[in-house]
Automatic annotation (TrEMBL):
GO molecular function: ligase activity
Domain AMP-binding enzyme C-terminal: 372-446
Methyltransferase recorded as keyword: no
UniProt domain AMP-dependent synthetase/ligase: residue ranges: 21-321
PANTHER family linked: LONG-CHAIN-FATTY-ACID--COA LIGASE
Primary enzyme class: ligase
Protein name per its UniProtKB record: Long-chain-fatty-acid--CoA ligase
Keyword Ligase attached: yes
Length: 459
């Protein structure tokens, strides 16, 4: 058995829970869970997982909600050294079926039976080179890409280690007294900010309605850029009581300088604008004191090459699970190719200037355009299909489809929406469709997506 100090993730998190003792760490409605109770729950579930034959290197899929048991199950699965696959809500049946086929030994939907086992001393069995978790970048294909993160990488991450916190995270941690969780704990952002909250001495609060900040006396929550725009507009029209709010964790897509500045003016100094990817974890974060329109300065242990951004972070993934071709394109000599464009200003602040990848980001979830085009092109009346990301007030971006008809008939928008929704999910369904005789062509001879994007507002 390895020495306690040498144990892998989640040893640091378990130590945080042990130190919390009788302090509330999770709140779900009227239920309050202390550090001691959470540690006991993790121990009993870990015993149950081992009793079901789960051990180091084995795959486990978690289909759970957002509650203390779901959080405890994630920690318990890592404690036994398993490869954890979280299945988030909103995936199609085919996508869920694919996830459950990824060499999965055990599927956990609830913890009733697991939690009936006796608590035993917690020994973290993760081996450094084993894959600790698979985090899926999107649900945009029938076979979503899974970022594979090793136990060594998760152990090296700074979330549960205050001595390694970058300055921006240290500032954020001081505001995480009551952090709202909602949606899915399989979300990398939601889960890791929860760990940061516990490490900072705060309480994780389950919210059915993440907008009920006053009801939950919340001090922090994650919010997408479209969600932030709605909140700002709502505060201008009819201000709600946000007196407890100290940190809005803006995630998913870049903020324009104008929206960033407006949000600070309306909401006060509460914006923390993070930049990162599933492959990398956090790359940088702007605090309320940083210039609007930037994503802050990367920490000293994060390396960034500007232009088309290549990065190295302590907790980065090692590749895409069972996908060597795409791994070779993105994971290059220890660096990760973000396919984002950016530059540093004279003061060292990072500015995001665009994307070098063909994607659409809907409600902060990234969806690759290629699979959407393939599905639309399968319609019997479509000869060719081209998709671009169009700005959308509700979702940040949405799918705009351009089609070259096979004959005189142009398929109706609703037909294409139904086709794409059935195959890839509603987020990938087009909100507009435009018929064209042929696509514009770039000097390279390839279809010119930039020219198509310019047609969106005139289509």
């Amino acid at each position: 058995m390895p020495a306690r100090d040498a144990e892998a993730f989640p040893r640091a998190v378990l130590d945080v829970l042990g130190a919390a003792a009788d302090r509330p760490v999770f709140e779900h409605g009227t239920r309050v869970v202390t550090g001691t109770a959470m540690l006991d729950l993790v121990s009993r579930i870990a015993t149950g997982l081992r009793a079901n034959g789960l051990g180091p290197g084995d795959g486990v899929a978690l289909l759970q909600g957002v509650d203390p048991e779901a959080f405890a199950t994630i920690l318990a699965a890592h404690t036994v050294g398993a490869r954890v696959v979280g299945v988030r809500p909103g995936l199609t049946d085919a996508q869920v079926e694919h996830l459950l086929s990824l060499d999965i030994k055990l599927v956990v939907r609830d913890t009733d039976d697991l939690a009936e086992h006796p608590a035993e001393p917690l020994r973290c069995a993760g081996r450094p080179g084993d894959i600790a978790r698979l985090i899926h970048t999107s649900g945009s294909t029938s076979a979503p890409k899974a970022c594979a993160q090793t136990y060594a990488s998760m152990t090296n991450a700074w979330t549960a280690r205050p001595d390694a916190w970058p300055p921006a995270i240290r500032e954020l941690a001081s505001r995480l007294d009551r952090y709202l969780v909602f949606g899915s704990l399989s979300s990398q952002v939601m889960f890791e900010y929860a760990i940061l909250t516990l490490t900072a001495g705060g309480t994780v609060v389950v919210a059915d309605n993440p907008g009920a900040i006053a009801q939950h006396r919340a001090t922090a929550r994650v919010i997408t850029v479209p969600g932030l725009a709605k909140l700002v507009a709502g505060q201008r029209r009819s201000p709600a009581d946000l007196s407890t709010l100290r940190a809005l964790l803006v995630s998913g897509s870049p903020l324009t300088t104008e929206r960033h500045r407006e949000a600070l003016e309306v909401l006060g100094p509460v914006l923390f604008h993070g930049y990162g990817q599933t492959e990398t974890g956090m790359i940088s974060m702007a605090t309320p004191a940083d210039p609007p329109g930037t994503v802050g300065r990367p920490p000293v242990d994060v390396e960034v090459r500007d232009g088309e951004l290549f990065v190295r972070t302590p907790g980065q993934a090692s590749g895409y699970w069972a996908n060597p071709e795409e791994s070779a394109e993105v994971f290059v000599d220890g660096w990760i190719r973000t396919r984002d464009l950016g530059r540093f200003d004279a003061d060292g602040y990072l500015h995001l200037t665009g994307r070098a990848r063909d994607v659409v980001i809907v409600n902060a979830n990234l969806h690759h355009i290629g699979p959407i085009e393939h599905v639309i092109a399968e319609h019997p009346d479509v000869a060719e299909a081209y998709v671009v990301a169009a700005p959308d007030d509700d979702t940040g971006e949405a799918v705009h489809a351009f089609v070259v008809p096979k004959g005189d008939r142009v398929p109706e928008l609703e037909e294409l929406r139904q086709l794409v929704t059935e195959r890839l999910g509603a987020a990938c369904a087009p909100v507009h469709v435009t018929a064209i005789a042929e696509p514009p062509v770039a000097p390279s001879g390839k279809p010119d997506k930039r020219q198509l994007a310019k047609l969106v507002n005139t289509a």
